[in-house]
Design a protein that fits this description.
The protein contains 8 helices and 4 strands; from the N terminus they run βαβαββαααααα. By secondary structure, the chain is an alpha+beta fold. Helix 1 packs parallel to helix 3 (65-75), helix 1 crosses helix 6 (159-174) and helix 4 (86-112) packs parallel to helix 6. The protein is 54% helix and 7% strand. The protein has helices at 11-21, 40-45, 65-75, 86-112, 124-144, 159-174, 181-191, 194-202; strands at 2-5, 26-29, 53-55, 61-63. Helix 1 (11-21) links the parallel strand 1 (2-5) and strand 2. The longest helix has 27 residues, at 86-112.
Length: 206
């Protein structure tokens, strides 16, 4: 398999899952800021021009964070990254969807790219203010709905934890935000996992 990633982007969470699974894969550096996702070669793989993009062993391409995470976990049950029951799987998807569909695009997209939300530079500080508030609310909502102990799900470590980790990483390392205590503890536990350390080292984030 080949994972196309941009260092420190949301693809970091998929990178972590691949390290957790332990199957052979190649991490292909595709930096967003260098325009790597807009080249004809990359667009031939993924016309959406986004990471994560996973090229599987049979040459087929899978895109979108939640779909890739689900497929990796379901295809590698021995790794224990997805609950076996329908309720547990639904809760894992629920958590991932909230991260990738709300915290990321509503909060952090405003913090990373104000021009997307307001053409006038005079409005960019307000966009950043909104992004900070929306990201903080997302973390507060995650904290308020927390069902697990050390990990997001009561059943234990799962794909949901890798998704939460990449936005926690953005909050702490890129934005200097303070996480709710439960999420801060989760972030620190994630940093201690060997798979996370390997992924971060490969991406130059260690």
């Amino acid at each position: 398999m080949k994972l196309h990633y941009s260092p420190g982007a949301c693809s970091l969470g998929i990178h972590v899952l691949l390290e957790e699974i332990g199957q052979p894969f190649e991490a292909v550096r595709s930096p967003i800021k260098e325009g790597a996702l807009q080249t004809p070669e990359f667009k031939a793989l993924n016309p959406k021009g986004k990471v994560p993009t996973l090229v599987r062993d049979d040459g087929s391409v899978l895109t979108q964070y939640t779909a890739i995470a689900f497929w990796l976990a379901a295809s590698n049950p021995a790794a224990g990254l997805l609950p076996a029951d329908a309720e547990g799987q639904a809760r894992a998807l629920e958590a991932m969807d909230f991260v990738t569909g709300t915290i990321h695009p509503q909060g952090f997209s405003r913090l990373f790219n104000q021009a997307r939300f307001a053409p006038s530079e005079a409005d960019h500080p307000k966009v950043k203010e909104q992004g900070t508030a929306l990201a903080a609310k997302g973390f507060a909502d995650m904290d308020a709905t927390w069902k697990g102990a050390e990990w997001v799900l009561p059943s234990g470590y799962s794909v949901a934890d890798s998704a939460l980790f990449f936005v926690e990483f953005w909050a702490v390392k890129r934005m200097g935000m303070t996480l709710p205590p439960r999420l801060q503890a989760h972030y620190e536990r994630m940093l201690a996992r060997p798979a996370v350390q390997r992924a971060m080292a490969t991406e130059g984030l260690a």
